[in-house]
Amino acid sequence: EVSTDDPKTAFCTLAKREEMNPEEDSIHHCLYQFTRNETLTETNKLLCDVCTQRHCGPKNNIGEKKYVYTNAKKQMLISLAPPILTLHLKRFQQAGFNLQKVNRHIKFPEVIDLAPFCTAKCKNVAEGNTKVLYSLYGVVEHSGTMRSGHYTAYVKMRSMNNHLSDLVLQQQSQASETEPVKGQWFHISDTHVQPVSVSKVLSSQAYLLFYERLL
């Protein structure tokens, strides 16, 4: 979606990013890097239709047009906070001509605030809110290599979340609890299911993270 907002406010977020100091190898650091402000210059310049029209005039034939490219700023921000947040971690990297699995632990919290990564005009966040909170309820973990391995899951068994139902069915946004949704965590591997502690969940090598909206 192309934004035509005032440049002074186009890159504003719900919460100040300047106050963040995301820890390396954390999901906060991944989100911070993914949504950082980038400057497009040289071979990355943006084709500007307005500049091209000013330079060539509207009556010139397409074949005679000399397209004008200009420096620009780019930032990817969340414009609509989803009821369910799914985060997919890139668990591979290029190693010469081969792909290599990334096995290091990436820290992730029970409750995450997306406000620093949301546009200031986020469509389904009530005016004045400076927090967009999500509670963790599922993790997928992969063990093995790029060629073979095994997927397991951590899932939180919890009571019905009526607030979440409203968000999904009616797109309503209202205040809710800001603590993690209470429930028991289970580790699931094929047909084997066993209860585990939240510390065990948070120490896993997450491949997929699933959060539900609190606020």
Shape: globular
The biggest beta sheet is recorded as: 7 strands, antiparallel
The stretches of 5 or more residues where confidence is low (pLDDT under 50) are none
Please give the count of helices.
5
Mean pLDDT over all positions: 84
N/C terminus separation: 25 Å
Number of distinct beta strands = 13
Q: What is the CATH class name of the domain at 27-35 and 77-213? A: Alpha Beta
Keywords, please?
single chain, 215 residues, alpha+beta, Cathepsin B, Chain A, 7-stranded antiparallel β-sheet, two-stranded antiparallel ribbon, 5 helices, globular, hydrolase, Peptidase_C19, USP, cysteine-type deubiquitinase activity
Q: Can you tell me about this structure?
A:
By secondary structure, the chain is α+β, with helices and mostly antiparallel strands. It has a domain at about 25-35 and about 75-215: Cathepsin B, Chain A (Alpha-Beta Complex), CATH 3.90.70. The protein is about 15% helix and about 30% strand. The protein has 5 helices and 13 strands. The chain has helices at about 5-10, 25-35, 50-55, 160-170, 200, and strands at about 40, 45, 70, 70-75, 85-90, 90-95, 100, 110-115, 135-145, 150-160, 185-190, 190-195, 205-215. Strands 5, 8, 9, 10, 11, 12 and 13 form a 7-stranded antiparallel β-sheet that branches. The radius of gyration is 22 Å and the shape is globular. The mean pLDDT is about 85.
How do you describe this structure in short?
This protein has 215 residues and is of the alpha+beta class. Helices cover 16% and strands 32% of the residues. The mean pLDDT is 84.
